[in-house]
Specification:
Belongs to the thymidylate synthase ThyX family. Keywords: FAD, Flavoprotein, Methyltransferase, NADP, Nucleotide biosynthesis, Transferase. Its EC number is 2.1.1.148. With 256 residues, this protein is an alpha+beta fold. It folds into two domains: 163 residues, Gyrase A, domain 2; 64 residues. Helix content is 43%, strand content 18%. Strands 2-3-8-4 form a four-stranded antiparallel sheet. The protein has a two-stranded parallel ribbon with strand order 1-5. Strand 6 and strand 7 form a beta hairpin. The radius of gyration is 23 Å and the shape is globular. The N terminus is likely disordered.
């Protein structure tokens, strides 16, 4: 924190430190996730124990047969074979997005702690493309673009509130207040970071609820910010498990 000569900080002193973002960060940190994991797990029920090499060899490993089995499992909702894999993502997003993530009992989470480290002054502000108007009632509504005046209002108000909150946070830290107490003034648009470890079955459930797609059996209306994270996770998963991803879409994006 930078202080004036009299030792009294002003809001202006904090402006240069603050960053505003409108994007989400999702990185695939590590993975053990392949279509062969699904096939390996599914075939033990009819063929007994096999090594993974045996399960992947010969005629049995033909893509046509594999695609058919995965589609059958997805269509008839035999879900457990889709659990024998793992993906770990690193996510940077506003705190309000993390609260939505953790509504899903679908993953293991480890988030950075405001008790043990000083939180960075990075705050989310919607860009001009973000829809602002909610039309309809819960369960049957849509979002539409805001007016130029509304866009400016959201941008200006968010930046001002974030700057004031960060100044208050820093003032308490400088006064010796514990980090776990000082953080209580920070807003929900503060960026945090976490690791998320998930298997493909749980990820499909998450994607079915947190993305908007044509052709889904159960339409969903996610908040745009968590959908931005879900879209990035989906892209990584589609590359890792293309046959499973294809079957998920062919069967209405319903988790098995």
């Amino acid at each position: 924190m930078r202080c004036l000569s009299g030792g009294q900080a002003t809001i202006v002193d904090f402006v240069a430190d603050i960053q505003f973002r409108s994007d989400m960060t999702v990185e695939l940190v590590r993975s053990s996730a392949h279509d062969s994991d699904v096939l390996f797990a599914a075939r033990v029920s009819t063929q007994g124990e096999k090594t993974l090499d045996q399960a992947q060899s010969g005629e049995e490993a033909s893509e046509k047969r594999d695609r058919g089995l995965i589609n059958y499992l997805m269509r008839d909702r035999h879900g457990s074979p889709f659990e024998h894999n793992s993906m770990t993502f690193y996510v940077q997003a506003p705190i309000f997005v993390f609260r939505e993530f953790m509504r899903h009992r679908m993953a293991s989470y480890n988030e950075e702690s405001g008790r043990y480290r000083e939180l960075n002054p990075v705050f989310y502000v919607p860009n001009a493309e973000r829809n602002l108007l909610q039309v309809g009632k819960p369960g049957a509504y849509e979002f539409r673009p805001g007016t130029p005046e509304q866009i400016d209002l959201v941008d200006q108000t968010t930046r001002e509130a974030s700057t004031h909150a960060y100044a208050a946070y820093q003032t308490m830290l400088e006064a010796g207040v514990a980090r776990e107490v000082a953080r209580i003034v920070l807003p929900l648009n503060t960026y945090s970071s976490m690791y998320v470890t998930v298997n493909s079955r749980s990820l499909m459930n998450f994607l079915s609820l947190r993305t908007t797609r044509e052709g889904t059996h159960f339409p969903s209306f996610p908040q745009r910010e968590i959908e931005m994270c879900a879209e990035k996770m989906e892209t990584f998963w589609a590359d890792l498990m293309p046959l499973t991803y294809e079957a998920f879409n062919l069967n209405g994006r319903v988790a098995p």
